Amino acid sequence: MKNYYRLITLISVLCSNLLFANAIADEMERLPYYDSAEFTPKWLKSDSLELNDMHQISDFKFIDQRGKYVTADTFRDKIYVASFFFTTCPGICPKMRSQLSKVQEAYADKDYFKIISHSIQPTNDTVEILQTYAKENGINANQWHLVTGNMDEIYNLARNDYFANEDLGEYVSNKDFLHTENLVLIDHNKHIRGIYNGLNNASVGNLIGDIKLLEQELKSTRKIN
């Protein structure tokens, strides 16, 4: 009889461990959500009611290197990466551009994926300058949008929507240039799903892999094949 109870106990422990392992595996197959500048991850399922109140990127309207308007509708049902730069930046921008080029290459044939890089010197980075910059650096205008526009709108979007402030870089006033090396991953529902260091090879490698996880979510909605 004692052996019987030991067997039952062992089976119960094994089942509990298996359930725990499955739960951990399920977590690893999903990306968290972020809804504040503290970037505290929230692990939610796609059908969670909490998503109804989850932070989303606001509507916007800028102009890209082709002279075409880029709005929230451009990214409807798309996965995208957002960044901030300026064309004459001698420091972190060339390295970030090189890393983003890897992301562009990894998903070059995927029409559900885009990149948007906002100029933080929009008065200097005109459409013509952005177009030249794109050609010189192998940027595919159909997938990677370099955008310019009203400075206040760009900065407000950066700080209030992408949380590009003291947690993504050094906090600066509206009169200064916003400078951050971070890349922000946005899902097809305009939710923030990841933050990555655009200067770090391993971090950008994680970004490339996480885009694949969001691709699976997008496929589950039957919006892509």
From TrEMBL:
The lineage of its organism: Bacteria, Pseudomonadati, Pseudomonadota, Gammaproteobacteria, Alteromonadales. It comes from the Bacteria. This is SCO family protein. Keywords: Signal. InterPro entries: SCO1/SenC, Thioredoxin-like_sf. Belongs to the SCO1/2 family. Residues 1-25 form the signal peptide.
